[in-house]
Design goal:
By secondary structure, the protein is an alpha/beta fold. The protein has one domain: Aconitase, domain 4, CATH 3.20.19. Strands 4-3-2-1-5-6-7 form a 7-stranded mixed beta sheet, covered by helices on one side. The longest helix is centred in the last third of the chain and has 14 residues.
């Protein structure tokens, strides 16, 4: 997993509130296999495309200036609704490294960091200020310094955020839960050697 320390990138404003996981990753795509990062095409699919599959020109991610967006700035209650891994994978495969919002659905943040996505919660006034700046300057960049737990707006304003220390560690070190476990490989192997010696009939 790619380390997350400081990320400076184009930020796309998702102004709507209560964007649920079915909007992020529509349920009709749940049976499709994830291969070669292809879930990115489903991110916010029905906002991005019409019934004929044509891009909706009025949606932010259809704008050429946001094609390389790596940060989303959203309203309150982003990724609420049902728990589905596809909602996280769609962000990963699209290339999103961080989502900034007033608040999130209960499940999304607990899964997102395991796949390298930072969820940063800011005060409503701070999110409103970020959205206003991004709407005034399409294609503007936002910077996130995870070690300092700081978001820098396009105009230079700096906002701090809180994060679970365990999630921060995994993101900064670029570890998923399996990678974290493998860091204890030597201790695990020593334990297994002792177990086999003491209980050979279990080997």
């Amino acid at each position: 997993m790619e380390r997350f320390e400081t990320v400076t990138a184009v930020a796309a404003p998702i102004v709507a509130r209560d964007v649920d996981t079915d909007q992020i990753f529509p349920s009709r795509f749940l049976s499709r296999p994830r291969a070669d990062g292809n879930y990115g095409q489903y991110l916010l699919h029905d906002h991005r495309f019409d019934a004929q599959g044509r891009p909706r020109p009025d949606f932010v991610l259809s704008d050429e200036r946001y094609r390389n967006a790596r940060i989303l700035v959203a309203g309150a209650n982003y990724a609420c609704g049902s728990a589905r891994p596809g909602a996280v994978f769609a962000h990963v495969d699209f290339g999103i490294r961080a989502v900034i919002a007033e608040c999130f659905g209960a499940v999304f943040p607990t899964v997102a960091f395991k796949y390298g996505i930072l969820t940063a919660q800011l005060a409503p006034a701070q999110v409103a200020e970020l959205l206003a700046q991004l709407l005034r300057s399409p294609g503007a960049q936002v910077s996130i310094d995870l070690p300092r737990q700081a978001v820098t707006a396009p105009d230079g304003q700096c906002f701090s955020f809180e994060i679970d220390p365990f999630a921060k560690r995994l993101l900064v070190e670029g570890l998923d839960p399996i990678g974290l476990t493998l860091g204890f490989r030597a201790e695990i192997e020593r334990f297994e050697e002792k177990r086999r010696a003491a209980l050979p009939w279990l080997a």
